[in-house]
Design a protein that fits this description.
This protein is α/β, with parallel strands linked by helices and about 280 residues long. The protein is built from ten helices and eight strands. Strands 1, 2, 3, 4, 5, 6, 7 and 8 form an eight-stranded mixed β-sheet that branches.
């Protein structure tokens, strides 16, 4: 039940932009928990409200392991980006379901490895929009852009992203802790397929998500969904694997996020078992 990203995506103008924070506060609902703020609380951030902390503390009592899921999923993002930029030569990243900025956002990790990396973030969450200026930084050699866009219209997302990315060259599509907001698994798979269809050979897909692999995680998911927040559905490992159909999996395949290419000193201890799986696949 990882909330890296948005509440339900909504229709928007799909244009790259900086923020107009003056128009945003009216859209932010602080009367019920919010996925991005809830997840921000779990990873130690400060961009959350009492309602988010209350459900967070309640879920910690039910399933303390969800904090490990949050921290280790974030570490997975960093390792995946470093691998793609450093070992696969990827210089373009499309991060769908951006979430609130924390430490080591996609563009920061990528541009440390390859300063000429271009990163487009996609989200339409009002609180993420309010913080998007923090994301819109870049090295002089690279570029970072933000789209207030709709996951349910992949072709429009790709069209807008083409204002920053060269879609004739490989792109890493990042969808981390986001697809659980799409209740229907077949629809979620179709959205991923349509996004990858617009990217050329040599592009990569990176997905991680919480999984229904323990009674504690299932109970935590049910408690979160009962809180009034937009629901988030945990899936089986087989369903996560299905997102990669037709792609060449990068070793070690679809595994717990702590076990995907662990690095010395990484906060994600590979000996720790977590209810979150992820992987990287290459488009032939």
């Amino acid at each position: 039940m990882t909330m890296h990203a948005q509440e339900a995506f909504a229709v928007s103008d799909l244009t790259p932009r900086t923020t107009d924070s003056g128009a945003t506060p009216g859209r932010i609902d602080t009367s019920k928990p919010h996925s991005a703020r809830f997840w921000n609380y779990f990873v130690g951030g400060k961009d959350n409200y009492e309602v988010d902390r209350e459900i967070g503390d309640h879920i910690k009592e039910i399933f303390p392991g969800l904090v490990d899921v949050a921290v280790t999923s974030r570490a997975f993002l960093g390792r995946a980006v470093r691998h793609l930029a450093g070992e696969r030569g990827i210089r373009q990243f499309l991060d769908v379901g951006t979430g609130l900025p924390t430490a080591d956002n996609t563009h920061e990790v990528a541009q440390r490895v390859a300063p000429d990396s271009r990163v487009v973030y996609v989200d339409n969450d009002p609180i993420v929009l309010a913080h998007a200026n923090a994301l819109l930084t870049s090295t002089p050699e690279g570029r970072t852009a933000y789209l207030d866009a709709d996951l349910y219209d992949p072709e429009a997302v790709l069209e807008a992203a083409a204002g920053t990315l060269d879609l004739s060259r490989p792109v890493a599509l990042m969808i981390l802790n986001t697809l659980g907001h799409v209740a229907d698994h077949s629809l979620a798979r179709d959205l991923v397929r349509r996004l990858m269809a617009g990217l050329p050979s040599g592009s990569h897909l990176v997905i991680s998500d919480s999984t229904a692999t323990s009674e504690g995680m299932i109970a935590a998911s049910e408690a979160y969904n009962a809180s009034g927040a937009v629901p988030y559905y945990v899936r089986s490992v087989e369903e996560i694997t299905g997102f990669f159909d037709g792609l060449e999996l990068v070793d070690p395949g679809i595994v717990q996020v702590t076990k995907w290419r662990p690095e010395p000193g990484d906060s994600a201890n590979p000996a720790v078992s977590v209810d979150a799986y992820g992987g990287v696949g290459r488009k032939p």
